[in-house]
Design goal:
The structure is a homodimer of 218-residue chains. The first copy, chain A, is mostly helical. Chain A has a single domain, classed as Up-down Bundle (Methane Monooxygenase Hydroxylase, Chain G, domain 1), CATH 1.20.58.220. Chain A contains 7 helices and no strands. In chain A, helix 2 packs antiparallel against helix 3, helix 4 runs antiparallel to helix 5 and helix 4 packs parallel to helix 6. Chain A is elongated, with a radius of gyration of 19 Å. The N and C termini of chain A lie far apart (38 Å). Chains A and B meet through helix 3, helix 5 and helix 6 of A and helix 3, helix 5 and helix 6 of B. Chains A, B: It is found in: Cytoplasm. Chains A, B: Plays a role in the regulation of phosphate uptake. Chains A, B: This is Phosphate-specific transport system accessory protein PhoU.
Chain lengths: 218, 218
């Protein structure tokens, strides 16, 4: 059975990488829909969330099969149970990307608000976190996982920066006060995406060390 | 098999009602955590989201069993496939209630901002929409389902009202400008919950009429 088990674990790794790439794409589509004020792209992003949901279910089914048929122990068991946790956060990121696309349908044109460039940065940072987090899972690279977690500070700083700037913009009775308020809500969604990407990296660390991050830090 | 099928359909109805009550409770806990600035309640709300996720999986498994073993047609088939769609929106509402609880952990004390009473109203309206939506599913009551959909205008109006008031508060350089910005983001979460509750009611209408709302309106 061992060879079959290894093949199935390889399949699991490939699927996790693919789901990571799907999430990256969803974030990219969502921010594109927002910045480009692009209705079609927004609808594509919302539809794409269903593909991500299906991917989650497929990976979940594979994990269940591995757990029931192979009854893995120790590190193999952690690898599979971590995958089950990771895909929940990945699916939530897909939801948030879809929510950002939904927002872009309701928002005024925010594309000429300066802070949009910081939103793009938040998007890029979170995309990188997701992709590197899933890579760290497959390569079992603790350092990369820790870098992903550290990177959440960059995302949080960007959020604080955007919040400051947008509140100031509203306080100054900027002509686009309401659009600034809309953009603030979008920034919050990206900040949450960063939180979920951090969770992913924390599960990677658990799958490698068997310790949850708080314990591992002790 | 018919009797067994009826029993399983009854089980499905009971589960949908229970999941509706769980969602109602999650929203209630989330807004309580926010208004009471209550860290313990916030953590409870976040944990409770896992129970809701499990309930979704249980109902999904029951639906799959019904579809595969009983191969239902027409109205029975619609009832089960609608349930599969409804629980996705219900689970998303659980996520949003959990996100509101997460927010309440990061926010300043917003409990003394006047608009908090409107947030409470949004919470009450959306709780009512979820509960009545699931009841309409079980009682196959088209009017109640349509009332739920109409009620989303009340939620949207409350959001617009809160947004206006909070942006004005910030423009006036109110001492709590940043807390006002925080509250705006919370209001957005409740507005999204209203959207998901509307989706639930639209699936109820489909399960009864076999038509999607846009068609049904024609």
């Amino acid at each position: 059975m061992r060879n079959r088990f290894d093949l199935q674990l390889k399949q699991l790794n490939d699927d996790i990488i693919e789901m990571g790439n799907m999430i990256e794409r969803a974030i990219e589509m969502g921010v594109y829909a927002l910045i480009g004020h692009d209705t079609d792209k927004a609808k594509q992003t919302i539809d794409y969330d269903m593909d991500i949901d299906h991917m989650e279910r497929d990976i979940e089914a594979l994990c269940m099969k591995l757990l029931l048929q192979q009854q893995p122990v120790a590190r193999d068991l952690r690898q599979i149970s971590s995958a089950l946790k990771m895909i929940t956060d990945m699916e939530r990121i897909g939801d948030q990307a879809s929510d950002i696309a939904e927002l872009s349908l309701q928002l005024g044109d925010v594309s000429d608000i300066d802070e949009i460039s910081l939103i793009q940065k938040m998007a890029n940072e979170t995309m990188m976190m997701v992709v590197r987090g899933t890579e760290a899972y497959v390569t079992k690279d603790l350092d990369v996982a820790h870098n992903v977690i550290d990177n959440d500070d960059v995302v949080d700083d960007l959020f604080d920066q955007i919040k400051m700037a947008l509140v100031k913009r509203i306080q100054d009775n900027h002509v686009k006060s309401f659009e600034a308020a809309d953009l603030l809500m979008v920034a919050k969604y990206f900040e949450r995406i960063g939180d979920h990407a951090t969770n992913i990296a924390e599960w990677v660390i658990y799958s490698i060390t068997g310790k949850h991050v708080d314990e591992a830090d002790n």
